[in-house]
Design a protein that fits this description.
Helix 2 packs across helix 7 and helix 5 runs parallel beside helix 7. The longest helix is centred in the middle third of the chain and has 26 residues. This protein folds into two domains: about 350 residues, Alkaline Phosphatase, subunit A; about 80 residues, Arylsulfatase, C-terminal domain, CATH 3.30.1120. An eight-stranded mixed beta sheet has the order 7-6-8-3-9-10-4-11, sandwiched between helices. The protein has 13 helices and 16 strands. It has about 475 residues and is an alpha/beta fold. Helices cover about 25% and strands about 15% of the residues. The N terminus and C terminus are likely disordered.
Length: about 475
């Protein structure tokens, strides 16, 4: 059942602002004088296995993503935007909690059908916090944080849910819609109304649902988690979307592109719904992918990055990343410093003037607003860390340098400002820096608990072969 939360947006607060001493402080002063909604709407849109170069704002020319490009030009592109893991489920766990998912042992995708594997019940979610702060919270699309009752979105702070619990499924409607509409007891979810038209294609279906939610709840502050499963496999698209990319000869690539175009179109329609309700300027939007694309499996394009989903090379974790909030976040800006997918947690909590209730946990998320607006000119994170299941891969980024470890393979150090493709290791040329980052990464990894469930994902051999090696080499990769 859709639950209404009585909370209006009539209250406003003013950020403290300084005097315009000179032109160097002009942008900061202008931001300081901006009037912000007391409780802006928050929309977090997550793509699934989207390639880094599969959006126009990252250089795509083979087909067009006009609505994502417009979202980017209306806001800030985070050029060093990262997912917190190389797999779907763990990244989503980090997003929901504002923490490295390894802190609570979530380092693999939950097995399909398992009722025990998933986001631990004791972890407080962004929806828990925002619902307590007066937000109407809804989750739409792919969940992938567990299929047991205790893991269900309606048990994790979301007041309504429309989607599926597992990691993937067919894009076409089935005869039984319980996979799309169910509550924590497995019963059909009651709804106040149905969209004016329903598509048989799930990407369009989710877009319709998002629009209906906005139309029904635009007078209240809301948090929408819109998790498209596009363009995750299976590769499936309708004739309508295939026609948009008919010039692509490779049929698999054409289908993948059609799936991206369908998502792009949906995002445009969702933004139009915000405009139609007069709340575009009262809505903070995040967009990013849960990990990198998989070129061999779904024909994604991670150019110019090496690696893919499942690896901690840039192609597995660096993702298209945009933050938009008209009148607050600068439009047309490119932000260079590293940010993480789970930063949407702290940013959302801060703009909602909310606070986590648990005081005994360490949050890793950072509120990005003061950084993206220029109020703080330092990087949001001193260091960022990654670890895959069982410690098979380990990585750390500090500034422009990244240390990368794969079990059984010589460790490497890269200068990402000069070598974003990670083609030349500097581990022997900058031995002191290499050893320093190696020690920091290993120390961080030792502080994490054991992986709580093995889950499923790419086989370890496939992970490493995906970056071009058939076996562990005796020398560095592309020295």
């Amino acid at each position: 059942m859709i639950i209404s939360v009585n909370n209006t947006k009539s209250g406003f607060y003013f950020l403290l602002f300084g005097l315009l001493v000179n032109s160097a402080f002009g942008i900061r002063a202008l931001f300081a004088e901006t009037i912000l909604p007391a409780k802006p709407n928050i929309l977090v849109i997550v793509a699934d296995d989207l390639g880094y170069n599969d959006v126009g704002f990252n250089g795509l020319t083979q087909y067009k993503t006009p609505h994502l490009d417009k979202l980017a030009s209306d806001g800030t592109i985070c050029r060093s935007g990262y997912a917190s893991h190389a797999f779907c489920g763990p990244t989503r766990a980090g997003l929901m909690t504002g923490r490295y998912q390894g802190r609570f042992g979530f380092e693999g995708n939950p097995k399909r059908g398992s009722t025990t594997e998933g986001l631990p019940p004791e972890e407080e979610t962004i929806a828990d916090i925002l619902s307590t702060a007066g937000y109407h919270t809804t989750a739409l699309g792919k969940w992938h944080l567990g299929e047991g009752k205790m893991h269900h979105p309606l048990e994790r702070g979301f007041q309504s849910f429309f989607g599926f619990l597992e990691g993937s499924r067919s894009y076409y409607k089935t005869n039984d819609l319980k996979w799309l509409e169910q509550n924590a007891e497995g019963e059909r979810t009651e709804r106040k109304a149905s969209p004016k038209s329903r598509s048989d294609y799930i990407t369009d279906y989710l877009t319709d649902e998002a629009i209906e939610f906005i139309e029904a709840n635009h007078e209240e502050p809301f948090f929408m988690y819109l998790a498209y499963n596009a363009p995750h496999g299976p590769l499936q698209a309708t004739g309508k979307w295939m026609a948009k990319v008919s010039k692509i000869e490779n049929k698999r690539r054409q289908t993948y592109a059609a799936m991206v175009v369908a998502m792009d179109d949906g995002i445009g329609k969702v933004r139009q719904a915000l405009k139609d309700q007069g709340i575009e300027r009262e809505t903070l939007i995040f967009f990013f992918s849960d990990n990198g694309g998989i070129p061999p499996a779904n024909e994604a394009d991670n150019t110019p990055l090496s690696g893919m989903k499942g690896t901690l090379m840039e192609g597995g974790i660096r993702v298209p990343y945009v933050v938009t909030w008209p009148g607050v976040i600068p439009a047309g800006q490119e932000y260079p410093h590293p940010v993480m997918s789970f930063d949407a947690f702290a940013t959302s909590v801060a703009v909602a003037d909310a606070k986590p209730t648990r005081k005994d946990i360490q949050l890793d998320s950072v509120d990005l607003i003061p950084y993206l607006t220029g109020k703080i000119d330092q990087p949001p994170h001193e260091m960022l860390y990654w670890r895959t299941g069982l410690g098979f891969q380990l990585a750390i980024r500090q500034g422009k340098f990244k240390y990368f470890h794969v079990h059984g393979v010589s460790d490497r150090l890269f200068n990402l400002n000069r070598d974003v493709s990670e083609s030349k290791s500097l581990s022997t040329r900058q031995e002191d820096r290499f050893n320093q980052l190696k020690q920091k990464a290993e120390t961080w990894s030792k502080e994490l608990p054991p992986q709580h469930f093995t889950g499923h994902g790419l086989k370890l051999e496939e992970q490493w072969r995906s970056v071009g090696l058939e076996e562990a080499p005796d020398t560095e990769l592309n020295p």
